[in-house]
Amino acid sequence: MAETFRHVLRFLLLSAVTSSTVAGAGLPEVSIGVLSHRGDEATLRNWSPTADYLSRVIPEYHFSIVPLDFREIEPAVKNGSVDFLLVNPGIYVNMEVRYRISRIVTLNNLINGRPSNIFGGVIFTRADRREIQSLEDIRGKTLMAVDKTSLGGFQMAWKELRNIGINPYRDTAMLRFGGTHDAVVRAVQRGEVDVGTVRTGILELMSEDGSASSGEFRILGQKRNPKQPFSHSTRLYPEWPFSKLQHTPSQLARRVAVALLQMSPLEPAAQWGEYAGWTTPLEYQPVHDLLRDLHLPPYDQPARFTLTDAIEKYWYWLLTALAFLVLMIIMTSWVARLNRALKKSKSMLEHQHNLILDSVADGIYGVDLQGNATFINKAVTEISGWRAKDLIGKNQHYILHHTRMDGSINPGSECPVYLTFQEGKPRYVEEDLFWKKDGSSFPVEYSSTPIRDEEGVIKGSVVVFRDISARKRAAEADRQYQMELAHVARLSTMGEMASGMAHELNQPLTAIATSADACTRLLESEGDHTDRVLDVLETISTQARRAGGIIQQLRQFVRKEEPRHTQVNINRLVEEVLMLMEPEIRKAHIRVVLDLDNEIPLVQAQQIQIDQVILNLARNSIEAMLDVPAENRILTLRTRSGGGNAVITSVEDSGPGLNEEIRDKLFDPFVTSKPQGMGLGLSISMGIIAAHNGNLYCDGSSPRGTVFRFTLPVNQNRDE
User: Fold this and answer.
1) CB neighbours (10 Å) of residue 551?
2) CA atoms of 469 and 371, how far apart (whole Å)
């Protein structure tokens, strides 16, 4: 039965691969090079679902797998024919040093149902070879490894043999390479070689699929480690890294890393690839150390002649040169001191002036009482393009900030720089617009401070400004990232609710199918059954509309929202979310109490984001009540008008409440009381409400359970 299920699952996944390839036509292609250490067919079978997962999560691109054998990897990286790379750590270290690729995540392998991100090598022989009992017995025997560049299939074993004084190239009767792990195991099975070495897990996998039996081999130099249940003969190293090439856009790499880190172990891609997901990139220094010890690329070059070597060999001449250099320094210092004494009075003022103006990155210029520029520093030219001859002696207002951000004329009478020396008060402008010499504008923040002479009389003002273009771009990028994070959270939520939604859709579909069969039987029977057929067709229409409504609600919730606020009715959003959560509420035996104020005004909001906040709070409440008796599980959703200026929405449960330790850090990212929770729901919800100029908080005054409330401001005059 299990084998039949596996074949069905493979058929479905391969069908999904074909569908994804067709759907990806016309999209930018992103290729993932994967080391084909068990053959191209196995590589495509195991990793194509991962590419399909990325294509689904990042729909702007189409991802595909490119199997690469050991000798195809470096040309592919060098020529840039792949965008990402998934290879063993030894090859990764080489590519990192040679071509500056960088890891973004590390594979979490699935070992006996447990995730592990470390692996090693196993050295083995046939169990009937009684003359080979230990690693020392390999001397003079034939040895087969996977490939010279295979970390788990050769280099780890080489390191262990080197530690006991055996060189596999020199001290074995023959050293061969099989190309794949399976080929090495089969060669040992057939007696073609005495000893083989592969990475951990290969023998167990082949035993599971029937290619080998569990007692067929003897492990040489076997080690024990509770973190690695598979047989191994070497120390353990970090698992395969998923890396980006130098030409791959960093933004795309960040999105791929987020998608892989958020992959569920239940995702078909993870199950098909037989791994447990991905983790943050590990430290690969142990791999560097191994390659350095074995003098393997990229550490195969002879040691350089260092400064220490030069000192040890030529110390006498160096000492003589150092003494001469000290003498010259003393003489030069004496001459320079005399020269500085002669020029000190002249250079002091110039030095101080240049130091003040040019040692800062902000633009600085002076203005006299007529509004003309009196001096500028180097940063003014670097930022705006205006040189000293363009500004000094000319009216700075009509050159630098003559036009406002909305395109209207900025009159000189309202210029903060003018008002500074007219009123004698410093000013700070948080955001304004300055104009460059090439006609383009850029946002700035600046301060204007009066300049006084020795008698305290104002002579003008000094302006210090800073280009805030990068800050504004960063703020926009952060806003986009928050939207992406919220979208990912919604997709994760819908994944958790998928089972209940499938059941909810199955009911109308079953009713449609049953009614259709009834129509068929009525039409095939004798007699006039028009009225009954019409009744059944009405039932079919009703159930179809019901299923369509559920699907429409799901599509609306998981779509990416536009950054546009509209006037929404909070009561309607509450009801929509409850309809979406109806299967989960019914399954948990929750009694829902709706206390909605029909007189509350409309609020300006992004509907999908507020849907997400209500859903997050309601789901937290449901999960909190699972530990109390079913008859006591009550979820209350309440809306009220907050004095005409805001709408207050409350989500209350009858659960055990929150302890003080969790309450203090409730809205911090990655803080959760749920064993499987990521701790992002409340943090994302807080960010959404804050972006709407509202407030989200936990009300500690409730005598039982937990009450979350959020407020949204009312703005009736804002256009839709």
Assistant:
1) 12
2) 26
